[in-house]
Write a structure and sequence with these properties.
single chain; 189 residues; mainly beta; eight-stranded antiparallel barrel; 9 strands; 10% helix
Amino acid sequence: MRTFALAVVLLPWSAAAVFAQERWRGPYDEIRPFAGAFVPLGAERADFRSATMVGVQLAADLTRHFHGVVSLSWTHGHNRMFTKDLTHIWQYDGGLEFNAVRDMGRGWYLHPFVGAGIGGRTYDYADHLAKNTSCIAAYGSVGAEIQRKVITLRAEARDYLSCYESPISTERRSRNDLGLTVGVAFHRR
């Protein structure tokens, strides 16, 4: 797990260093509020239900094709383990996005992108019998933006691989889930 997480972080950052020679008229800072769904996969479906997610990303143009991104999201989750099933899931991470730029005419631009990053996740259980836990998480993402001037519409899918500490047995395991979001980006020039 640690080797995978290290590779997820170092590979995009080393690629960014190669492209850092290509300076362009940035950086344009962005704020990206979003909303979407937390979708547990595999073994995680036995412990959690799908739920709503909201959050915000901050991004900075490193080059014309690379963004540095930090994210914070909150999921209004529900677990299947306790009577009081409410679980606040906090996701916080940083990463890189690589995007292409396609001029669609009349001032519209399409930006398909892929990304990767690493961070952490905290499970905050409402039930007093549950121990709150935090662990490392890594993600890969794919999505697209449609931009006109300083406003952008975004759609993103993030596939998270995280460690998960059971609040009952304290055993640590790897878990997988998706974050499917839509949002806007506001560019500051």
